[in-house]
Design brief:
It contains seven helices and no strands. It is mainly alpha-helical.
């Protein structure tokens, strides 16, 4: 496995997580429209989760002997995900922007999963029972709670050997309440 390539991809994910954090956090502060208080609470929760993802990614970069991107002005150029400024703070617009960001995050972490799956032997091999059952059926590991994008992120970090915590997420709940 090319560790430098892995660090490069992890830095892309790191930059993306920080941009997502800011997008959720600022959106929660500026939001307008129906059910804005409930959606603002969800956006704040997701901002906190994105920040914890950035910490996990940074920890893995450091474990691999790399350095997380040190200058925030480099994040937009490194991240394959667009930063959508909440210039139109209407609930529906913000949720659409955040869904697009999560879809991009799936592609970032899928690339990491594809690169690292079954290749990083430096990590412990213990798996959760649900993950083992799913692999026995020939499928990918079952998500351990949370939304699909975050399950993909956790699997990518797990495959690369990072310590992963299960984060309670409810993107669908935020979308259902706003729509």
């Amino acid at each position: 496995m090319d560790v430098e390539e892995l660090i490069r991809l992890l830095n892309r994910a790191y930059a993306s997580e920080w941009l997502a954090y800011h997008q959720y956090w600022l959106g929660a502060k500026l939001i307008k429209g129906p059910m804005k208080d409930a959606v603002a609470a969800e956006l704040t929760l997701h901002a906190t989760e994105e920040l914890s993802h950035a910490v996990l990614v940074a920890d893995r970069i450091l474990q691999l002997g790399g350095t997380p991107v040190t200058n925030p002005k480099d994040w937009p150029a490194l991240s394959p995900c667009a930063y959508d400024a909440p210039d139109d703070p209407y609930v529906g617009v913000l949720l659409d922007q955040n869904i697009a960001g999560e879809q991009c995050a799936i592609s970032v972490y899928k690339e990491l999963v594809d690169l690292t799956r079954e290749k990083d032997r430096s990590r412990p091999t213990s798996r959760s029972p649900s993950s083992s059952r799913s692999r026995a059926r020939g499928g990918p590991p079952e998500p351990e709670g949370g939304s699909r994008p975050h399950a993909v992120a956790r699997e990518a970090l797990r495959a690369s050997g990072a310590a992963v915590v299960s984060l309670p997420l409810s993107h669908r709940a935020a979308g259902e309440r706003a729509g």
